[in-house]
TrEMBL record, chain A:
It comes from Rhizobium laguerreae. Keywords: Cell membrane, Copper, Electron transport, Heme, Iron, Membrane, Metal-binding, Oxidoreductase, Respiratory chain, Translocase, Transmembrane, Transmembrane helix, Transport. It is a multi-pass membrane protein. One of its GO terms (cellular component) is plasma membrane. The keyword Transmembrane applies. Residues 22-543 form the Cytochrome oxidase subunit I profile domain. This is Cytochrome c oxidase subunit 1.
Automatic annotation (TrEMBL), chain B:
The lineage of its organism: Bacteria, Pseudomonadati, Pseudomonadota, Alphaproteobacteria, Hyphomicrobiales. This is Cytochrome C oxidase subunit III. The chain crosses the membrane at residues 24-48, 64-84, 96-113, 133-158, 178-197. Its main location: membrane. Residues 1-199 form the Heme-copper oxidase subunit III family profile domain. It is found in: Cell membrane. It comes from the Bacteria. GO terms for molecular function: cytochrome-c oxidase activity.
């Protein structure tokens, strides 16, 4: 026990609010300039970067989608060569799943979980910085390879043997496998941070049954990441081993098995859909009450449904493999479990409808997108039940019916709620409101454009048009629908354009938002917009599920954290009773160096297995630099 | 919004130990991630076995000596490991330093034995799927021993430096000990898979 334990603590109790704020700004703020920004470990700074980067990937992936639609608008078009088309749909799928959907959801968690649980920074802020850089480098690797015409061309699922050493010479499939490793490293790091932040850094009094629904969603999502991502990492690593050092995992001639790949891939790939979808459930459940003017109906069933969805999602992967010829009994089991997952989905939808039913909806843009989400997602869910039945799936597998289905689920289930979330939380992130007028334009263009684009794809699929073909013959009855779809896709793109214009415009000139423009009751609205570097002047104390009552102008808080160095409050897992004060790391450039060292190793390893040996030395060095205490009061406390 | 102070936390200790420490939970989360990885690798082992006409494919079962000695060594290492953890809990600097030196040596020793395990498999990683999976199992576990060894070495240096004697470091020592137990426990199913399943 050192002398500075209790007595020498400069408590903030006797200080005026303004003085507390001044001291906290000094200690939590990042230094100005380029290096200050690079070294920042503020979760809001990193999350904002993460979100913006993910949206840039959305735009790039969207441009690829338009390119595909241009090529498919007419039979036998010559706009894109077959080779390039293979790269484009692979890039589109990989980019959307690994560089946009999962990262953007996690990034929203990185921004809002600490604010919603009332703490000053995420757990392990340096790991957080590292995870962003790794994600960025993985994305840049993929897009650079596309620019250099060496992008992967084996589909976003990279099935063997197509992606194996025999059929995919060159570096294309290796680039896919390493991009996976980059993004999974990043995703896993964020998942760990979120779990620990939720478990240990909640405001005093925020017991398990008072955790905001979005935070629950992020927690369940993080557990799914932790359990599912190792499968894809194992798969991509063994793939690259097969390709580089001649292991035989996927080579049937030597006792390997191609189906093993599909099992591993979909053991990850199915939960992946819920990794994307559960945060969306949390967003919708948070946004809806704010616009219908009453608390969420069915907090407990909703939380249970999210947990059930998470657990069930691991029993479903084989429904992606019905057409590979598995034993009958297995098929029946997976059909049944695929249908079972519609039970929690039904509970969620029922809770939302009940919330709306009992309230008085105010149709602002976020609510429009939420309603668009419910409508679209229900259709996607119905076609999901259809393809869960083996005979039907056998008919439509690998046709545009499936393309239609999963875009209904992904765009309906994730992109709509995400845009709703951006409109809802934009004021908190930037201090400014987005435009209601442009918001309506964006909504209608996106909503109508979306359905006109993707609904006809069901029909195309029933008419037998296969996926992943770069063109088709004029004799086939597909030309009219394809042209219609391509034109609608332009409408959809226009909607996104309006949305992005609104974001950029409002970031600069939007109306000032004030701390709580929607009169919401979760903790992020208890601080200014945008929040200061230290999030809260003093740590809030919670005594109800609705943490905030916007009208009483006072916030119950805890005093006694130090204001002369970075300190957090640690609380117990179940009841959130205060347990300890924990110091939080200062800004550091080491995470960036560590990410660079990791990137060098991963890219080098596509060329030589020895890279794993030699390349890990710089990583070890940077990690030691990262963890070694610098002798500051925080480190020594 | 104005603050209404309802609670004073200034009397709380700095850096809680055990479950009061965030790093304890992070260690747990990483063990869950790696545990999932080991679990999958074992599942793949049995999957490939179920497809093979005979198992092991084209090789005699592995020799037991090196792997069994290593298993014994790992099990023994748990005792000093627990002692270090206990000493760290009571903040006994000298003993922790000594214990970490011992644990560093006990991290190097299994690596020396591991060198003999790979040839004892009687198959190369690129011969067939059996060779690939057993090399992967051994490789995965070796990586864990290696990273934990490096961690222990760095921590040992830290404990001998002026940064050693404080609550945070003792917490790190405890987490390091926890992680070593995980490395040992994770080995047991791997050992059974690699050495005993092929003998049935
Ligand atoms: C924004 C409008 C979008 C359009 C117009 C669009 C269009 C398409 C088209 C035409 C294909 C089929 C390519 C083929 O089979 O030849 C496709 C595939 C795919 N899309 Fe989209 N997409 C859009 C957004 C998204 C989003 C937001 C996601 C995910 C979050 C996504 C995920 C996928 C995936 C995973 C594939 C499968 C790729 C493969 O087969 O390898 N798409 N998309
Ligand atoms: Cu699925």
């Amino acid at each position: 026990m050192k002398k500075d334990q209790a007595s020498a603590v400069p408590a903030d109790t006797g200080l005026a609010d303004a003085e507390v704020e001044r001291q906290l700004t000094t200690i939590w703020g990042s230094r100005p300039g380029f290096w200050g920004a690079v070294a920042s470990v503020d979760h809001k700074v990193i999350a904002r970067r993460y979100i913006v980067t993910a949206f840039i990937f959305l735009i790039l992936g969207g441009l690829l989608a338009l390119a595909m639609r241009l090529q498919l608008a007419q039979p036998e078009a010559r706009f894109i060569s077959p080779d390039r088309y293979n790269q484009i749909f692979t890039m589109h799928g990989s980019n959307m799943m690994f560089l946009f959907a999962v990262p953007v959801m996690e990034a929203i968690g990185v921004y809002f979980v600490p604010l919603m649980v009332g703490t000053r920074n995420i757990a392990f802020p340096r790991l957080n910085a590292f995870s962003y850089w790794v994600f960025l480098f993985g994305g840049v690797l993929l897009w650079l390879s596309f620019a250099l015409d060496t992008a992967p061309d084996v589909g976003w699922f990279a099935y063997v043997p197509l992606s194996g050493p025999e059929y995919s010479a060159g570096k294309r499939a290796d680039i896919w496998a390493q991009m996976i490793t980059f993004t999974e490293l990043s995703a896993l790091a964020v998942a760990v941070e979120i779990v620990v932040t939720v478990f240990k850094q909640r405001a005093p009094g925020m017991s398990l049954d008072r955790i905001p629904v979005l935070v629950w969603a992020m927690l369940v999502m993080s557990f799914l990441v932790i359990m599912a991502m190792p499968a894809i990492m194992f798969a991509s690593s063994t793939l690259i081993l097969d390709r580089l050092v001649g292991t035989q995992f996927y080579n049937p001639a030597e006792g390997g098995d191609a189906l093993l790949w599909q099992h591993l891939f979909w053991f990850f790939g199915h939960p992946e859909v819920y990794i994307i979808f559960l945060p969306a459930v949390g967003m919708v459940s948070t946004i809806l009450p704010a616009f219908v003017g009453r608390p969420l109906f069915g907090y407990l069933p909703l939380v249970m449904a999210m947990i059930a969805t998470g657990v069930l999602s691991f029993g479903l992967w084989v429904h992606h493999m019905f057409t590979v010829g598995l034993p009958r009994l297995g098929e029946s089991f997976f059909t049944a479990s695929s249908m079972a997952i519609s039970i929690p989905a039904g509970i969620q939808i029922f809770c939302w409808l009940a919330t709306m039913w009992a309230g008085r909806p105010v149709f602002r843009t976020p609510l429009l997108f939420v309603i668009g989400f419910i409508a679209t997602f229900v259709i996607g869910g119905l076609t999901g039940v259809m393809v869960a039945s083996v005979p039907f799936d056998t008919q439509v597998h690998d046709t545009y019916f499936v393309v239609a289905h999963f875009h209904y689920v992904l765009i309906g289930g994730a992109v709509f709620p995400l845009i709703a979330a951006i409109y809802y939380w934009f004021p908190k992130m930037t201090g400014r409101m987005m435009s209601e007028r442009l918001g309506r334009w964006a909504f209608w263009l996106i909503f109508i454009g979306f359905h006109l684009t993707f609904f006809p794809m069901h029909l195309l699929g029933l008419l037998g048009m296969p996926r992943r073909v770069y063109t088709y013959q004029p004799e086939l009855p597909w030309a009219g629908l394809n042209l219609f779809i391509s034109l609608s896709a332009v409408l959809l793109a226009l909607g996104f354009l309006v949305f992005f214009v609104d974001v950029v415009r409002s970031w600069r000139n939007g109306l000032p938002a004030g701390p709580n423009p929607w009169k919401a009751t979760t903790l992020e609205w208890a601080t200014s917009s945008p929040p200061p570097s230290y999030n809260f002047r003093r740590i809030p104390v919670v005594d109800a599920r609705e943490a905030l009552s916007p009208n009483d102008g006072e916030l119950a808080v805890a005093s006694g954290l130090r204001t002369d160095r970075r300190e957090l409050l640690v609380t117990s897992v179940v009841e959130a009773l205060p347990e300890a004060r924990e110091s939080s790391p200062r800004d550091s450039v080491w995470p960036l160096w560590a990410a660079i060292a990791t990137a060098v190793m991963l890219i080098w390893s596509m060329f030589s297995p020895w890279a794993v040996v030699w390349g890990s030395i710089p990583i070890a060095v940077t990690l030691i630099g990262w963890f070694w205490p610098k002798g500051s009061p925080e480190d020594e406390s | 919004m104005k603050d209404r102070i309802v609670l004073d936390v200034s009397k709380l200790s700095l850096h809680g130990m055990g479950t009061a420490s965030p790093t304890w939970w992070a260690t747990g989360a990483f063990m869950l991630i790696e545990g999932s990885g080991f679990g999958l690798a074992i599942a793949v082992y049995f999957y490939l076995m179920s497809l093979a006409p005979q198992w092991p494919i084209d090789a005699p079962p592995p020799d037991l000596l090196a792997g069994t000695c290593l298993t014994g060594l790992l099990l023994i290492s748990v005792i000093p490991n627990m002692m270090v953890s206990r000493w760290a809990k009571h903040k006994k600097l000298r003993r922790v330093q000594l214990g970490l030196v011992v644990m560093s040596l006990l991290g190097i020793a299994p690596l020396a034995l591991r060198v003999f395990e790979f040839p004892a498999l009687h198959i190369s990683w690129d011969d067939n799927a059996y060779g690939s999976i057993v090399w992967t199992l051994l490789g995965l576990h070796t990586t864990h021993i290696l990273t934990d060894l490096i961690d222990t070495l760095v921590l040992t240096c830290l404990m001998f430096s002026r940064h050693g004697d404080n609550a945070r470091r003792y917490g790190d020592v405890q987490d390091n000990a926890l992680y070593w137990n995980f490395v040992v426990i994770a080995w047991l199913p791997l050992y059974l898979c690699i050495y005993w399943v092929p003998r049935q």
